[in-house]
Amino acid sequence: MLSAAQYEALKFCLLSVRSRSTNDAYGTMTFIFTILFVVVANVLLLNVLVALFNVTITRVNKGAHESWSFHRFLLVEEYRKKSPFPPPFNAIHYSLDLTVAFIEFVTPYVVKAFGVLKPEKSSKSSKSKLDFVVPIHHQARSEC
């Protein structure tokens, strides 16, 4: 099969490969370190992915809560402006609202024109010494 010279050449090649295998770049330790690196990298990247999902979910929840609050406000405001009476009788309610709005609009001009003032009760107030007379329903709405 093999001649003596071929056998010696093959033996020399195999021995030289075996002797070089201790310094081989693909040795056992390199393989173990590569596997260890891949495992640690996967764990770290998975943790980063979970953290990004957490940040995204927090942002979406905050936006959803703000949106829900705003739409709830719009709904409450819509029903606050509506008349509590059914359509035949809501004309009375809207006429009273119109009268109140007109009085609120005209009151500052009347006070300014006629100089209707009331004296201050306490001198510790942060306002000026004299306050203008303001209707009670206007004070109640400004407190809300």
Automatic annotation (TrEMBL):
Alphabetized UniProt keyword annotations: Membrane, Transmembrane, Transmembrane helix
Sample GO molecular function, one term: monoatomic cation channel activity
Transmembrane segments: 31-53
CC terms in the record's Gene Ontology section: plasma membrane
Superkingdom as given in the UniProt entry: Eukaryota
GO biological process: metal ion transport
UniProt-listed PANTHER family: TRANSIENT RECEPTOR POTENTIAL CATION CHANNEL TRPM, TRANSIENT RECEPTOR POTENTIAL CATION CHANNEL, SUBFAMILY M, MEMBER 6
Protein name in the entry: Ion transport domain-containing protein
Record organism: Didymodactylos carnosus
